[in-house]
Amino acid sequence: MGSKNRPTSTFKSKLKSSxxxxxxxxxxGFISFLIRIRPSDSVxxxxxxxxxxxxxxxxxxxxxxxxxxxxxxxxxxxxxxxYPNGSYIHFGPLFDQMMAITSLVLGMGSPGQDLITTVxxxxxxxxxxxxxxxxxxxxxxxGGHKTGILAAILIAFAPGQFLHRSIIGFxxxxxxxxxxxxxxxxxxxxxxxxxxxxxLRFEHVITKNLDVLKEPLIYSIIAGFMYxxxxxxxxxxxxxxxxxxxxxxxxxxxxxxxxESSDYLGIVGTVTFLVSSILILPFVHPEMGFSMYYYSWFxxxxxxxxxxxxxxxxxIEREFKKRNLKTYYFPLAIFGAFIFGLIAxxxxxxxxxxxxxxxxxxxxxxxxxxxxxxREVTSIFYPGGEFSxxxxxxYFTAPAFFASIAGMILLTANIIRKPRPxxxxxxxxxxxxxxxxxxxxRFAYYYSVNIAVMGAYLGxxxxxxxxxxxxxxxxxxxxxxxxxxxxxxxxxxxxxxFAILAIFAVLVLPEYSSAMGQTIGGPGGPNGPWIxxxxxxxSNTPDPGMDYNSVYEAPxxxxxxxxxxxxxxxxxxxxxxxxIETIGxxxxxxxxxxxxxxxxxxxxxxxxxxxxxxFFTAQSEEEATKVLEAVDPDPDKAGARxxxxxxxxxxxxxxxxxxxxxxxxxxEGYYAQYQVEGNSQILPTMRYYNSMESRLHFLDGNGLKQxxxxxESWAGQSNEVAYKQxxxxxxxxxxxxxxxxxxxIFEYVKGANITGIASPNETIKISTAILTGQGRTFEYSQSTxxxxxxxxxxxxxxxxxxxxxxxxxxxxxxxxxxxxSYEDTxxxxxxxxxxxxxxxxxxx
Length: 844
Description:
The protein is α+β, with helices and mostly antiparallel strands. It has 3 domains: about 130-520, no CATH class; about 530-745, Rossmann fold; about 750-844, Sandwich (Immunoglobulin-like). The chain contains 31 helices and 16 strands. The strands form 5 sheets. Strands 10, 11, 13, 14 and 15 form a 5-stranded antiparallel β-sheet that branches. A 4-stranded mixed β-sheet has the order 3-4-8-7. Helix 5 (about 130-155) crosses helix 18 (about 445-465), helix 7 runs antiparallel to helix 11 (about 265-280) and helix 15 (about 390-395) crosses helix 16. The chain is elongated, with a radius of gyration of 32 Å. Mean pLDDT is about 90; it is low at about 1-5. It is a multi-pass membrane protein. Keywords: Glycosyltransferase, Magnesium, Manganese, Membrane, Metal-binding, Transferase, Transmembrane, Transmembrane helix.
């Protein structure tokens, strides 16, 4: 009986000894959660509106609501964005499913909208807090409980990208990526440790020796589940597949040089990726081919390929030992097999070969052209094209960053002296993620884990120097209850106190201070003018005739989605596409998937494709209209009915105008150096003021024939007045030097054709005063010259008679009739809305 009870007693003993650490990690996780929900007031606004952060979080809430409306069917193709093409959704399904299941459970099968938005807002903070668990265990495997606890503290307080993407309201899959990728590394590491300790061999598999197999196989299977969870959170999970394969090759080489078997590694890797390859199969969309960005055969092949690589490495190792070949031939054999494999893939599946070859650059390379304007994919070390540590300090704090570098150096020295699989894995993981943030700063939220682990490893080694392990032993031996706790302090030495204070001052306190500062302003997202303008779109523009929460089938390959006649697009810069769709319930032409941008990708000699970049940088109304009409393949229909601009799009120096121009690969000539009162200044040129964006936002569309301002938000802080002053002073302009709406909505219309008779070759002006919904007044005017017979014609976009039912309910309109004037003649003319919408003639 005693022998039967021993495993239970051992488990209870281990659980009892682990309880203090479980309690500490739980407290750290709870503090991490509290940090992440600090800005809740900036998410749950006093007017009842829930303001999610950034851009993609809005789209996740969109897909979440569609999922719950049609559960369990989710949206994979969405025709309500990137009009008139629609967009396939590359987001993984798991993040939305977790939120949906949570909402369904809490709502007892029928969650209300308030519950759904609350779950969505808090979800990233919960996942961010849970990340302390795998980080603790990774730290523990490298340096014991002390290292694990310190790693948990550092990730809990980690500022920058990881904090921003796990804060309340930033409902994006990035935090799920970090959580599941770290869990994957934790269980893979645990499987390696267990398999190595048990001297796992392939013979144990053949003989079904469960005493040896059981524990490593369980950990390997869980690692496979975690990799699948990671992969189903983000289709780019092959990043961590690459990390594992690089580690595996190095580990095989090291084991071979030491005359040790790598069977333990081969079995762990094979089982892990066998499980992953099976789990990913149900989510594959065959129509996506070998795409990296959507769940396609690429994801099955890469995971299955990893499985085959582990099997192949094991086979090579066995052959080397059987034939007693020299160890230095082993890496050469691996390299040769790699080259042969690439050649075979290139011959058999050229498209897959291209993806494999280009994948490292897409992760580790610095972006150029239009993609270089996407903030999250720029290098962390070259934020503005020049080397800088500014982002590094902001994302990690300088002490934590340099401590992690020191930790990796220390770990390298330890591996050289006595290599352990878990240490080599941690080092390769850290080094490759360091390379990844060089290429794209977005990977900083991953690297925060490496910062925490490596910084904790350095701190743990410092604690070892002051005999911290002996202090832990004294605690376990002498503290049996709370009353024993005071007596424990007699074992504490002064150097241990100083070590703790040093770690707290150098690593913990700077991170905590930075995190507190970065949680003051909330998760970002649309400001008040954007929220108001999108809500205005929803309430005051015609229904496009689409069922907003339906799950639509994707069109057949090569065909376009069959939109109703009432459908139309909304043209704005891609940053705002998800807000327009989710808050405004309208169909943006461009979106943050970088769809609908147009422009060029490789060379200035390419065709400047129609899209947002070509529209807003167009140098005339005629050019812009051609772009707008080219967006829609229907020759009788324009690609957009509404154009939404904001002051950031109009700002040249520190806004979005130059990024728009950069996507066309033609960003020169928008500013030049001028001498102003003896000083050299960089000022906008006429090329900038001639752009459609400048004509719309700064000049209110004055003089344009088919574009009218239908709504503007309240003004915001900007340099708008300075741009207008420069225009008036240097280029003969005469615009009021005042701030106008932060966001402006224009409508593209056919325009009413006003015709009349005057003297031949007479200069004729038409004008009217426009009053906006914000109470601002500006003049709309055009000039023309009558022909030899005295005929003249104006195309005007404003109706003087107000809106009509079923069309735009504009709040910006003329205060009276148009006034046509020439010589001493003045005539008034009124134009109804039908004439503007249908392009009818109005005779004077």
